[in-house]
Amino acid sequence: MELEWLADRFGDKGALLIGGGIIGALFGAFAQQSRFCLRAAAIEFSRGRVGGKMAVWLIVFSTAIAGTMILAELGLFSATETRQLASPQSLSGAALGGLLFGVGMVLARGCSSRLLVLSATGNLRALLSGLVFAVVAQASLHGFLSPVRDALAAPLTTLSIGSNDLLLLSGISERTALTLVLIGLAASLALALWRKIGIWKTIAAFAVGACIPLAWWFTKAMTAIAFEPVQLEALSFTGPSADTLMLFLSRPGSMIDFDVGLVPGVFIGAFIAALVTGELELQGFEGGDSMRRYLAGAAMMGFGGMLAGGCAVGAGVTGASIFALTAWVTLFSIWIAAAATDWVVDRRLPARQSRSTLPVEPSLPAGIQTTE
């Protein structure tokens, strides 16, 4: 078996690192080509249009869920073994963290995964914002912000409702859920065809979604051959970004695992895709106001993602693929906050400022009247 050879050759940790890097590279390359972005989809939808950006996100979302459920049907994966379903999760943290993440996502003009992909193409705004995101995520996990995170996560957990399994709580069977998801996938493909996003972008979006069940399968397969316990997981960028940051500040080899391979893998995959297609371009901040906006948004995403237990991908796609209730709460909160922030910050405030700066009609001397 190939994974056994990989583990024998590089060790369990080395195999996890390589697997995370390969899956991350696939995600990064196809995310760069498909322009997969929850922020773009949420803004497009909130402005009353269901277009190409929404079609891409829906393809990714439905493919991830369908693929994960098919794995479970084949007996290659069990969602009940995942951390999200096997242990209590915070509902208050999911709601509050999702709201913070949604606001930050709009301010930073991209979620954590999108910032990582953009930074690989030469976007220095995204690179600096991604570093701030990772620092705040680490501070929220183990640093001075962790007591605040714990206090906000404590009031309401899934212990109060008995489970974090949305299918169990709703009484919907897995077969029924899979049927609905496949219908959703067909509808998203029809939307992509209607909006003419192109065959390549459609394939790339499908490949991004397929990376989720691929990661579930890989980490599940590693649990069967590894001598040490392996966490069953897929793609997320809040915790892995914090872990990758700490890797450079810790003793070499002390934090080697799937997560640490994922983040560099996404960067490399996105860089190669942009290089091949001629899309590498250095971009910087356009002024102090722009910089403050990006960094504030990145900080809010770092804390919000850690509080919620996942980001736009970690909760919004990976967690949703196993029907974790907290992940769906986080996703809903992200959508609501993103739409509200876009309306206030990018639509209403600029419109009000433009009205306030209109030239004032000069007053006319007494006795002189204008003509129509």
Structural class: mainly alpha
Q: What is the total tally of β strands?
A: 0
Distance between the termini: 86 Å
Helicity, as a percent range: over 70%
Notes on the protein architecture:
With 372 residues, this protein is mostly helical. It is globular. 51% of the residues are buried.
Tag the structure with descriptive keywords.
372 residues; mainly alpha; 16 helices; disordered C terminus
Concise synopsis of the structure shown:
The protein is mainly alpha-helical. The protein has helices at 2-34, 38-46, 52-73, 83-86, 91-107, 112-120, 124-141, 146-153, 166-170, 174-194, 199-225, 238-247, 258-276, 288-308, 314-321, 325-356. The model is unreliable at 360-372 (pLDDT under 50).
Write the layout of secondary structure elements.
Elements (H helix, E strand, L loop, with lengths): L1 H33 L3 H9 L5 H22 L9 H4 L4 H17 L4 H9 L3 H18 L4 H8 L12 H5 L3 H21 L4 H27 L12 H10 L10 H19 L11 H21 L5 H8 L3 H32 L16
